[in-house]
Design goal:
The complex is a heterodimer.
Chain A (H helix, E strand, L loop, with lengths): L1 H36 L5 H7 L2 E2 L3 E2 L5 E7 L5 E5 L12 E2 L3 E2 L1 H5 L1 H4 L7 H10 L3 E2 L2 E4 L3 H11 L4 E6 L6 E7 L7 H10 L8 H4 L9 H10 L7 E3 L2 E4 L2 E4 L7 E3 L1 H7 L2 H22 L25 H8 L9 H12 L3 E3 L4 E5 L5 E4 L4 E3 L3 H17 L13 E7 L7 E8 L6 E7 L6 H21 L1
Parallel strand pairs in A: 1-7, 2-8
Antiparallel strand pairs in A: 2-3, 3-4, 5-6, 8-16, 9-10, 9-21, 11-14, 12-13, 15-18, 16-17, 19-20, 20-21
Helix pairs in contact in A: 6-15, 9-11, 10-14, 11-12
Chain B lengths: L11 H19 L5 H23 L6 H20 L1 H27 L7 H18 E4 L2 E7 L2 E3 L1 H26 L3 H6 L3 H9 L4 H8 L40 H13 L2 H7 L7 H17 L3 H18 L3 H21 L1 H11 L10 H13 L22 H34 L3 H25 L17 H23 L1
Antiparallel strand pairs in B: 1-2, 2-3
The chains are: A alpha+beta, B mainly alpha.
Chain lengths: ~475, ~500
């Protein structure tokens, strides 16, 4: 019968509909469950949280940075012992305002939802005692963090210091900041503030790198010996009809690559960038993870590198001096400069060193991961140029008595009209212990004037910490 | 020969008994302090189930699985409702009992009363009366006018309209297809006024030029041709028409004004009685479509989005099965497109549904609240569920009606949810199997209609709460809390049971 044939079509349709329900449910459960469950609006998390004493957070030397106090009647309160100091790194855990920072991305550990806690759960059920969350030991050094915060006080910007060999983040400061202990009182002001104090600039602030990007171009030049680095700088260079003036309008005269880094010569880098061509510049940038995930345990914004192998000469000219559409995060720059300090290998930055359960047993121990980006020889050569830049070039303000500092300044043009002031570097140059990236947002002064002295003090304090 | 189990009946009932015993014991343990009344309630459910099943088997009432599957679904619902709120659970058990009684009554009525296919006007009248009641007495609940309160008693008329609607469509096709068969008896042609209508539907396929002409008037059915030709119509009637009307080829189209002129003329002649009584007018497919779309329009006016969609898909599925005019089918699907686009721009609540489907997370504390809470519940369940009573499904608004599936997913897990979906699937499969074996048009369409109602309704609400399709408020058949939906479902399936019994009996 004709109608029966068509009924079969409807049966097939119905089967497809029912099957799609089953497939979609499975898809949700497998691929969407984690993201959905962690949504701050999911009240179920609070149901677990009410029964759990959130884990304590320590610095690398065991100083308590955040802890949960349980009062007599069983109510719990999260305390941040150093107010603003860790506002962006540790973040906050608030019923009203959700979670950010480590409180957010290590939430399941802090609530002891990871690892095997069956025994603890049974104990909790039997005794009625709340579950104790896992404690986190950060890689941060409290003294260095405090120093960095003091240095940045009153400014807008970020400082990231890390161990260039392991990727351990030693200090991460973003200004302006907020006090996680008084979130409720300050919230309206924080949200309205046009300087966005809630934004973690270290991980998610995107800035043009300016001259610090010349290190990446220099690495590419060294890999391509056919590019002649020697140049007579006259103060201007014309690319595709556009004339670019150097910071030094009289010109730097005759330069080699090292000299070009020392004085931070724009014209020579523009020329070399154009000669290297889109393929070389893009390949080297991608190797330094521009426009890619940086790795590590933090939600770091990807730097922007919206170019391919085919670049217009004007784009090449802009990227060669860290301008154009290239945008980077401060932590990415710390990782980048660490590459030169670590024999050409980039270590992924991480902030949580170990996770312990309530009995003190280690649940997770962080391991450093690094990727070889450039050769050991090229890294050494660039380090040598950076040392010279601090000894006699644009970075003199970062000098530390008795220690060789390697560094590079940057002064980045941007749409605010006031330049960003950059400095990236590490020390000691011969056996690097600490690397740093400093950015002062719309500071209006050059990297050498404003960022370099701050970086020098951070490096100095960091080395004291290593020697302690 | 067959496997024999409890009380000498086939085995599937044992599964139901085991599931119910286990769940009710779990429930009674979950409540602190333990509540023996839960066990009594559970026992009641099991006894009801077994007794009814024995009656169905012993009295050879046809398909033996339909009742088992719906009882399984109802008992899952009762258990979940009990866990959410014991009062809901108890009330649902009462509705279940009443539902079973009505199941048997509708079974008997459908078998005893003959000629269900003759009351096409009755079905239309019934629907319209229910709409009238809803519009005059209806209360606005959650933006839709769909509940009628009479004293302490409240019900949702649209639930009953579903059954009227299916009977109406079934009666219509019975009327049309049987008159097409009548064509084989030439002597009736001379007697019955609708013989030309018959030739109309037959000749249509050969008569595309006329069709295309009339189609120019627009795809809207109201303006489209309306072919109610009758030999009694004087030919001069069409003199001012662009389309010629002749008695041999009585397929020509009329425009709306011509239709009214024609109708008023006919009402003045003695023929109008035949026109109505012989169902000449109603048999016209455009009149049929007009009535179908009137249903949809009225539902949309009540802001019953889910029901509107449901009625449409039931109609279009049956239309697809029985209508040979594919062009007309396409026009109807096109009409849906136009209605959707128009309602998107004109009705704010339609827009909200669509926006919260595409991205509910943007408005998580506002319009996207329900659906996101539902998704939280589903993912909280994981594969095996949190366990009965250990989840927090009460975070979802209206969890006991529209969102009960999310609660099942939370506490019984993905596998529990899949089991429910598969139960519906088996139910739908049994229904289709019955529909396929029936030869008589009216019963075939009724069986199909019933199974389509519940198949599509299940998809619409489950798809909605898991965000597969936009969420439209409609109950999950047999599981959601509510007397109207449960009882209408039992009545519908009682009829299906009767139809399956007829088939088994010959």
């Amino acid at each position: 019968m004709e109608s029966n044939r068509k009924i079969v079509h409807i049966i097939i349709l119905m089967s497809v509909l029912f099957l799609s329900i089953i497939i979609y449910l499975t898809y949700i459960q497998i691929f969407r469950a984690e993201v959905t469950a962690q949504n701050p609006y999911n009240k179920r998390q609070w149901a677990v949280e009410d029964k759990t004493v959130r884990g304590t957070i320590y610095d690398r030397n065991g100083i308590v940075l955040a802890e949960t106090k349980v009062s007599g009647d069983g109510t719990m309160k999260r305390l941040y012992n150093y107010d603003e100091l860790y506002s962006h790194t540790i973040g906050y855990s608030s019923r009203q305002y959700g979670k950010t920072g480590i409180e957010f991305y290590y939430n399941s550990d802090l609530l002891a939802l990871t690892g095997d806690n069956t025994v603890a759960k049974i104990r909790e059920t039997v005794t009625g005692q709340p579950i104790k969350g896992h404690s986190l030991t950060l890689t941060l050094d409290h003294n260095l963090q405090r120093k960095a915060e003091q240095l940045l006080k009153g400014k807008i910007g970020s400082i990231v210091a890390m161990n260039p060999k392991t990727g351990e983040v030693l200090a991460a400061v973003s200004k302006p900041d907020y006090n996680p202990n008084s979130l409720a009182e300050d919230w309206d002001r924080l949200v309205e503030d046009e300087n966005s104090p809630l934004l973690n600039r270290s991980l998610t602030g995107l800035y043009p790198p300016g001259s610090i990007y010349k290190l990446v171009i220099a690495a590419s030049v060294l890999e391509n010996p056919e590019i002649d680095a020697n140049y007579n700088c006259t103060g201007t260079i014309t690319i595709d009809g556009y004339t670019l003036a150097d910071a030094n309008r009289w010109g730097h005269g005759f330069l080699d690559l090292k000299r070009s880094i020392i004085v931070s010569c724009n014209t020579n880098f523009v020329r070399m960038g154009v000669e290297l061509g889109g393929r070389n510049v893009t390949q080297m940038s991608k190797r330094f993870l521009m426009g890619k995930k940086l790795g590590g345990d933090m939600p770091i914004a990807e730097s922007r590198y919206p170019y391919g192998d085919n670049m217009k000469p004007t784009d090449l000219a802009a990227v060669a001096i860290g301008q154009g559409e290239l945008l980077v995060t401060p932590i990415h720059m710390a990782a980048m400069v660490s590459t030169f300090a670590n024999k050409g290998a980039m270590a992924a930055p991480y902030i949580v060193g170990k996770i312990k359960n309530e009995d003190g047993m280690i649940v997770t121990l962080a391991e450093s991961e690094s990727t070889q980006i450039i050769s050991d020889a090229i890294a050494d050569e660039i380090t040598d140029m950076m040392v010279a830049a601090v000894r006699e070039g644009t970075g003199v303000n970062a000098r530390i008595h008795g220690v060789d500092v390697a560094g590079k300044t940057g002064t980045a043009q941007n749409e605010t009209g006031k330049v960003h002031s950059w400095f990236i570097g590490f020390a000691p140059a011969e056996d690097p212990q600490i690397a740093v990236a400093v950015i002062l947002e719309s500071e209006g002064r050059t990297g050498g004037e404003a960022a370099a002295p701050i970086a020098g003090e951070v490096l100095n304090e960091g080395l004291k910490g290593v020697n302690r | 020969m067959r496997p024999r189990g409890l009380l000498g009946i086939r085995r599937p009932i044992n599964i139901l008994i085991i599931v119910n015993v286990l769940f009710f014991i779990l429930l009674s343990l979950h409540v602190q302090p333990p509540d023996p009344s839960i066990l009594i309630a559970g026992g009641g459910v099991i006894v009801l189930m077994i007794t009814s099943y024995i009656i169905i088997v012993k009295k050879r009432m046809g398909d033996q699985y339909i009742f088992l599957i719906i009882s399984m679904l109802v008992s899952l619902g009762i258990i979940m409702l009990y866990r959410l709120n014991p009062n809901y659970g108890l009330a649902q058990i009462k509705w279940y009992g009443l539902g079973i009684v009505l199941y048997f009554i509708s079974y008997i009525l459908f078998r005893v009363i003959k000629g269900w296919d003759k009351y096409i006007y009755g079905y239309i009248f019934g629907s319209m009366l229910l709409f009238l009641i809803t519009f005059t007495l209806g209360t606005n609940v959650g933006g839709s006018i769909n509940w009628v309160y009479i004293g302490n008693f409240s019900f949702q008329p649209a639930e009953a309209t579903k059954i009227f609607f299916v009977f109406f469509i079934a009666a219509y096709y019975k009327l049309r297809l049987s008159s097409e068969e009548a064509l084989t008896f030439p002597e009736r042609e001379a007697v019955l006024p609708y013989n030309n209508e018959v030739s109309d539907s037959r000749l249509q396929n050969h008569n595309y030029p006329d069709h295309e002409q009339s189609d120019k008037s627009g795809s809207n059915f109201e303006e489209a041709e309306i072919s109610t030709e009758n030999e009694a119509v004087p030919p001069k009637n069409s003199a001012d028409n662009t389309v010629s009307l002749n008695s041999n080829h009585s397929t020509s189209g009329f425009y709306l004004k011509d239709f009214w002129r024609e109708l008023s003329r006919r009402l003045k002649t003695p023929n109008y009685r035949e026109l109505i009584i012989n169902k000449q007018l109603i048999k016209n497919k455009y009149v049929f479509l007009a009535i179908v779309y009137l249903h949809l329009f009225l539902l949309l006016m009540q802001r019953e989005l889910g029901m509107t969609v449901l009625f449409y898909v039931i109609f279009i599925s049956i239309f697809y099965i029985y209508e040979e005019d594919y062009k007309l089918l396409l026009y109807n699907i096109g009409a849906l497109g136009i209605i959707l686009v128009l309602s998107y721009f004109m009705l704010a609540h339609v827009r909200v549904r669509l926006v919260t489907w595409v991205n509910p997370w943007d408005q998580i504390s506002g319009k996207g609240y329900q659906i996101t809470q539902s998704l939280f519940a589903i993912v909280a369940g994981g594969f095996f569920g949190t366990g009965l009573g250990l989840g927090s499904p009460d975070f979802i608004p209206v969890v006991h009606t529209d969102f009960i599936f999310s609660a099942i997913c939370e506490e019984m897990g993905l596998f529990g949810g899949m089991a429910v979906v598969l139960l519906y699937f088996i139910l739908v499969y049994r229904g289709f199997k019955i529909a396929l074996t029936i030869k008589e048009t009216f019963k075939k369409v009724v069986a199909l209609g019933i199974i389509l109602i519940y198949g599509y309704q299940t998809f619409i609400i489950i798809g909605g709460v898991i965000k597969l399709i936009p969420l439209t408020g409609i109950t999950l058949p047999f599981i959601s809390y509510g007397g109207s939906s449960l009882i209408s479902a039992f009545i519908a399936f009682g009829i299906l049971q009767a139809i399956s019994g007829l088939e088994a009996g010959g």
